[in-house]
Amino acid sequence: MSNWPDKYVSLIAPKLEQLPKLLFYSNQTPYSEWIPEQVKPGLLIDIRGRVKDKASRQINFLDELKEEIAFHFNPRFNERCVARNSCLNDEWGEEEEEPRNVLPFQCGYPFQLLILVTHECYKVAVNGIHFIEFNHRFPYTKVKYLEIDGDVSVENIHYGKDPATLDASSSLLSKPYSIYNPELPFYHLIAEKIVPGFMIYINGAPIDDPCRITFNFKKMATEDSDIPFHFDIRFDEGSVVRNTLENYEWGVEERAIPSFPFSSAANFDLIFLVQNKKFMVVVDGKPYIEYTHRIALTDIAFFHIEGDLNVFSVSFCD
After folding, report:
1. Are residues 195 and 75 in the same domain?
2. How many angstroms separate the most distant Cα atoms in the chain?
3. In degrees to the nearest 10, what's the CA dihedral of 69, 23, 173, 290?
């Protein structure tokens, strides 16, 4: 682990300074509120919540009288698609459903929905991954209300302007984002983001008398998925085991650690930084271990947390 302090300062510290500071609240649907910012290019709306049941749910952008639906975003679990449309003068327009059989929401799991207003369209990203664009059919300057309805729990809605995304060609993936107080087990889609330089920062605390805490970088959000990187904190052994599961077989465990820095009910900060040939792991601001890739980064699609802990925040930085 040569030159770790220098690597930590140059690679990790700047990312921590970029983490967003947002206001949070809980709100049950239906939700219908005046948009507090002027709707114009550069407005970024950050919606975070949790999907409940496999029922239809919808997000609508409406005019001042709530008579015109400028943008209708409708995830449909029974059809495995997200329909988009506008309803103007009491008539629905042509529905957009592509890509079909792609539904970026999971029942029972949290989500982050980013909607960016540009001159030409609404750009939408789900869980940090660019999803669709919807060209304006109604003047965005006349949009005044946001409505959310269906079997979804809204945890926060944040309005802001992101200078990095004012250009319509810019990506929604360039800014850090955080998920607060997620329920466990926690799965988060990180496909297309898991490249050298990508960082995950977890703040949490073990429960009283913990046994195991597990962090996995997985290929699929299933129990039998390949696990390119398994980081398993074992309080019953006083060890931290790292390994890879491929084709239902575990590889050789790595157990060497400089110390066991985790304690019952004591807060910790844990960082996973992706590098070309390895993961770098930092605990409470101190370099901890490295883990050489055994499976290609392209095989990683989900980040998974489970075990005896309370997670206060999980932050993702490109």
Report:
1. no
2. 67
3. -150
Q: What is the dihedral of CA 20, 272, 2, 250, to 10 degrees?
A: -170
Per-residue pLDDT of the chain in tens (318 residues, 90 and over written 9): 445 556 555 666 666 655 544 433 445 678 888 888 889 998 889 888 888 776 667 999 999 999 999 999 999 888 888 999 999 999 999 999 988 767 788 777 788 888 999 999 999 988 877 889 999 999 999 999 999 988 888 877 888 765 444 333 344 444 567 787 888 989 888 866 788 989 999 999 999 999 999 999 999 888 889 999 999 999 999 999 999 999 999 999 999 999 999 999 899 999 999 999 999 999 998 899 999 999 999 999 999 999 999 998 888 887
* Residue 176 located in a structural domain: no
User: Per the domain annotation, does 242 fall within a domain?
Assistant: yes
When divided into structural domains, the chain yields a total of 2
Burial class (CB in 10 A: 0-12, 13-18, 19+), 279: buried
Under 8 Å CB-to-CB from 14, ≥6 apart: which residues?
none
User: How far is the CA of 202 from the CAs of 19, 24, 111, 199, 255, in angstroms?
Assistant: 12, 18, 17, 10, 21
Rg value, the chain, Cα: 21
197 and 306 share a domain? yes
- 140 and 190 share a domain? no
